[in-house]
Amino acid sequence: MANNLLAGKKGIIFGALNEDSIAWKIAEKAHEQGAQFVLTNAPVAMRMGEINNLAAKTGSEVIPADATNMDDLNNLFEKAEEALGGKLDFILHSIGMSINVRKGKHYTELNYGWLEKGWDVSAVSFHRVMQVAWERNAMNDWGSILALTYIAAQRTFPDYNDMADNKAYLESIARSFGYHWGVRNKVRVNTISQSPTPTTAGSGVKGFGGFINYAEKMSPLGNASADDCADYAISMFSDLTRKVTMQNLFHDGGFSNTGVSDAIIERFEED
Prior knowledge:
Layout: E1 10-14, H1 22-32, E2 36-40, H2 43-48, H3 51-58, E3 61-62, H4 70-84, E4 88-93, H5 99-102, H6 112-135, E5 139-149, H7 163-185, E6 188-194, H8 208-218, H9 226-237, E7 248-251, H10 262-268
Parallel strand pairs: 1-2, 1-4, 2-3, 4-5, 5-6, 6-7
């Protein structure tokens, strides 16, 4: 990749937990490409993770914020603009959580209190983040706002549970808010639908290893890794993608457009 694609650009990266996190990889690549940014995560997630190591590596400030709390988000944006010396050029939303998945609740027997919490964390938080940025006029013109999603928003993966509904709503928010951002500030808003990736959150889904192996056999190019996703995110933050907005961008080695592969046929073909 070319050097300094993000030189002079400033942003906020939500959701880096540890070295397995896609957000962590994106932060490393953004730093390599010349960006400055603030790292943030919920206080409980920060206690579980290693975000301070990433901050030291990238020369970044860490500002805790619960993305479901408007006061926290306003404080985050105020301090981020102070730390970075101005408005933002990019935001990464890499947040997802399902208590129903974590507790092993079947989709037909959801706990609705847990559903609402997961929906707020995984999807509504994206609207909250953009609304705070909107009201504060915190984005530079031609900036880029990005969230991570998964194809379970379009296709049924039984054990992905209510996270599939969360991702579908997340993608809708990107389209709806993306229109308004484009009209006012030429800011683009997109989601990246990533291959199944062995992150801390993803690995909590029942049968996740099977997801990964099946997708690898189905995808002509194989699964996209977290590093691959980071490269794609950098291109979306750069000026090379200024006219891409309100899109759900499949980054999955071709999985999303493959009906069946030779490898799958061979696996199930009878003698």
